[in-house]
Each structure stands twice: as C-alpha cells, then as structure tokens.
Design goal:
This protein has 6 helices and no strands. With 147 residues, it is an all-alpha fold. α4 packs across α5, α4 packs across α6 and α5 crosses α6.
Length: 147
C-alpha cells in the first residue's frame, strides 16, 4: 500500500486479513508512526496467511465488541467474546499505529486478553461496580506498560 495513510485507516487495516503474498508497508515520518509521509518500498513488509474464519464469513475475535461505555457490572455480565472484542478495540486505540503494526494481530490479541483479565479482576472484586470499564482498562494498560 503506497501513499498517505491516516492513523484510523492503518488501525482498520490491521484488523483486516492481509491475504497471503500481499505486502503492506507502514507510513513513515512523524512520531510513533503517525506521519503523513509516503510509504517506501524499502520499509518492512508483513505477509500473513488468510484467516479461514473471516473467509468463511464467521465472526473473528475482534468483531462485535459493544462494551466501550459499559460499567463494571455490565462488563461482568457480558460474554467472553464481547469482552475480548471490546478490549481489542481499546488496544487499537491505546497504541500508536506504528506500534500496532509491529505487534500484528497476535500481539494485539495478547494485549487485549491481558486487558480482559485485568478488568475482570477489578470487576470481580465487587468494588465500585458502577465505574466505567474503559477507565479501568486504561489503568490496566498503563500498569502493564510500567510493570
């Protein structure tokens, strides 16, 4: 992919399946990959095998998250799939596009799973069940980065 890529487009592109044999290059310039410079052919490229579930029309792990504005009570009552998809969305917003590109889908999922486990721990404590799960997720994210 050549030309200018906005941060939102790059995050969306990370969430889509990159067919085998296709090369995607990150943007250059700016800080932490949020630049407006054109991608160069010399930049690193990623090739991933196609996601069979996506090709068959099945929902993949990062689709369907609806808990972005939920309370901890609502978070606790939600399905594991919904919590993981929501945490994947949060993860995509917590890191720069350059960092997300380097993490790939497996790294994004690993971080999302850690966010879920952390928010679950806080929600299961029973304290302040009316608190927004997103604020707890951000605290978990910052804790993971510093520790």
């Amino acid at each position: 992919m050549r030309g200018t890529i906005k941060a939102a487009t790059l995050m969306l592109a990370l969430m889509l399946v990159v067919p085998a044999g296709t090369k995607a290059a990150p943007t250059t310039g700016g800080t932490e990959g949020v630049g407006d410079g054109p991608a160069r052919a010399a930049d690193s490229a990623v090739t991933e095998a196609p996601d069979i579930d996506a090709l068959l029309g099945k929902r993949v792990w990062y689709e369907g998250g609806t808990l972005h504005l939920s309370t901890l009570r609502e978070w606790s009552d939600a399905s594991d799939r919904n919590r993981l998809a929501t945490a994947g969305d949060w993860t995509a917003r917590m890191f720069s596009p350059k960092r997300l590109y380097g993490m790939g889908l497996n790294g994004i999922r690993t971080h999302a799973e850690a966010i879920v486990a952390c928010v679950d721990t806080v929600a299961d404590s029973g304290l302040n069940r009316g608190q927004r799960s997103s604020s707890v997720a951000m605290a978990c994210h910052l804790s993971m980065l510093s520790g």
